[in-house]
């Protein structure tokens, strides 16, 4: 099995700002593959705009930038009544395996702790081993009570500070 060497490049991770919308939309317009897992990101352009608007309105978003281009997006969708948040991450295909997902995840989990959340949860394609390795590196654990043939649920205990 061959592995792709990590490509060295500079990128910045920062909180989403309203004037970032066009750049974020451009990342998702160019994102491949669309709608592969749970229909995200949506294939239809208008539906994709509504989806992005909902994410940035309801969630806590961080963007990874390479120069003036968004190359990754992570969002926490908090439910303060439950003390948890759903976690979603998307990294441009050309920038996977280069540390972008790691830094986005680190920013999101720090924010979850700042918000006083107890748990962050996600669902992942059962065969997305790269993503699963990333999540486990930070301390996410598989949830044995939730399982389907195509996806698995993982949870992170915000009090553990694993990898953040």
Q: How are helices and strands ordered from N to C?
A: EHHEEEHEHEE
Biggest β-sheet description: 7 strands, mixed
Helical amount among residues, as a percent range? 25-40%
- The overall strand count is 7
Mean pLDDT: 89
Distance between the termini: 30 Å
Q: State the low-pLDDT regions, or none.
A: 1-5
Q: What gyration radius follows from the Cα positions, in whole Å?
A: 15 Å
Order of neighbouring strands in the sheet with most strands:
1-2-3-4-5-7-6
Secondary-structure class:
alpha+beta
The number of helical segments is: 4
Strand content: 25-35%
General form: globular
Summary of the model, kept short:
The protein has four helices and seven strands; from the N terminus they run E-H-H-E-E-E-H-E-H-E-E.
Textual characterization of the structure:
This protein is of the alpha+beta class and 164 residues long. It is 29% helix and 31% strand. It is built from 4 helices and 7 strands. The chain has a 7-stranded mixed beta sheet, sandwiched between helices. Helix 1 crosses helix 2. The longest helix has 15 residues, at 100-114. Residues 1-5 have low confidence and may be disordered.
């Amino acid at each position: 099995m061959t592995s792709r060497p990590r490509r060295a490049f500079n990128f910045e991770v920062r909180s989403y700002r309203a004037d970032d919308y066009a750049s974020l939309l451009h990342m998702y317009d160019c994102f491949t593959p669309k709608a592969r897992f749970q229909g995200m990101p949506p294939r239809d352009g208008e539906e994709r705009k509504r989806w992005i608007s909902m994410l940035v309105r309801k969630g806590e978003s961080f963007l990874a930038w390479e120069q003036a281009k968004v190359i990754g997006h992570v969002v926490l969708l908090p439910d303060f009544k439950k003390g948890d948040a759903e976690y979603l991450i998307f990294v441009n295909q050309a920038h996977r395996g280069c540390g972008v997902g790691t830094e986005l995840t680190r920013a999101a989990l720090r924010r979850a702790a700042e918000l006083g959340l107890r748990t962050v949860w996600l669902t992942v394609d059962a065969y997305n081993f790269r993503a699963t390795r990333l999540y486990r590196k930070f301390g996410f654990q598989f949830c044995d009570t939730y399982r389907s043939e195509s996806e698995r649920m993982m949870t992170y205990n915000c009090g553990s500070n694993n990898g953040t």
